[in-house]
Hints:
Layout: H1 2-6, H2 49-54, H3 75-90, E1 98-103, E2 106-110, E3 113-115, H4 117-127, E4 131-132, E5 157-158, H5 159-162, H6 166-172, E6 178-180, H7 203-210
Parallel strand pairs: 3-6
Antiparallel strand pairs: 1-2, 4-5
Amino acid sequence: AATAVTATGTGDSVLNICMDAKHHKKKPGPEGQLYGQCVLWKDNACCTANTSLEAHEDQSYLYNFNWDHCGAMPQKCKRHFIQDTCLYECSPNLGPWIDQADTSWRKERIRDVPLCQEDCEQWWDDCQDAVTCKANWHKGWNWTTGTNQCPQGTMCQKFKFVFPTAAALCEQIWSGSYLYTSHHRGSGRCIQMWFDPAQGNPNIAVAQYYA
């Protein structure tokens, strides 16, 4: 898959693929039973129904990651993290941004996916009063208990102090997986975390544009 991803030319090779990561299917396809917020991808998904269900659990076996590491994360904030998980696990339209990863649990990751401004701003608005102790959630946790805990010497504080802007949140939290853009939903120039599946998947055209 690595060669296909870096291949330039028509760009077809990156247009309908699943990354080589922990829970992704080898190839995208229909998944009738996708759960909850992941249902947007049921016509063509890189995730299984089981993965979509686990994406909604507070302490899911997907990564043993605890959203509530500084106290309970408000539901209006958590729904954005669930949506972010669904996009990452289920979307077959992230090909242009797949990159090599140097971790034991996945060979590929996404980098600089151009997020629509509204998706990022709404995420920040709904999460500004949630509490965390770290700006980069990919690394640096204390995992001695089997789940992520705040490392010694860190302080739990509101998102709005850890991430002073929406761009800081979207770009830092998963170490550069997302890129904050000034493009708007429906522009065909940015990936939507949220969309109305009845209108079709807008991210197909976005992947084509960047491919």
